């Protein structure tokens, strides 16, 4: 039972942080919904819901850092669009695009697991190259700015000693 007691104490001590991050996650999702509307995309085609959870909810994790967030999404999107251009839509092309995106994110140290959905969405929906700019580029910029502001406020008022980002590069 001592382990459970320790977990409960930790949860009680961090309730403000958890609530703050939950509120930030909700605001981040709302921002992504607005982005989807502006780009005339269904929200299901805007690949940032799990990125919001990572960047706002787990700001200390390596995949939540700007290099991974921005690099992972942009790289995965370019790969998805390239594979679509070369092979067209289809299950094989989608699988290949995701596999190439995973490899590229590893090689460039931009691993952001939520970005792995980008090539799948692109290839299966036959999205245009403009998808790279709206919603992907606009979304990563919006999410990076939101996270920087949100965690800055958190560090000042919500008893969190870490900082976001841990590093920009």
Could you explain the architecture of this structure?
The longest helix is centred in the N-terminal third of the chain and has 25 residues, at 15-39. Helix 2 (15-39) runs antiparallel to helix 3 (49-57) and helix 4 (66-87) runs antiparallel to helix 5. The protein contains seven helices and no strands. It has one domain (2-157). The protein has helices at residues 2-13, 15-39, 49-57, 66-87, 91-107, 117-125, 133-157. With 169 residues, the protein is an all-alpha fold.
Give keywords:
169 residues, mainly alpha
Question: Shape, please?
Answer: elongated
Q: Please tell me the total number of domains.
A: 1
Spatial extent as radius of gyration: 17 Å
Report the end-to-end length measured between terminal Cα atoms: 42 Å
Proportion in helices: over 70%
Mean pLDDT: 91
Order of helices and strands: HHHHHHH
Task: Please give the oligomerization state of what you see.
Answer: single chain
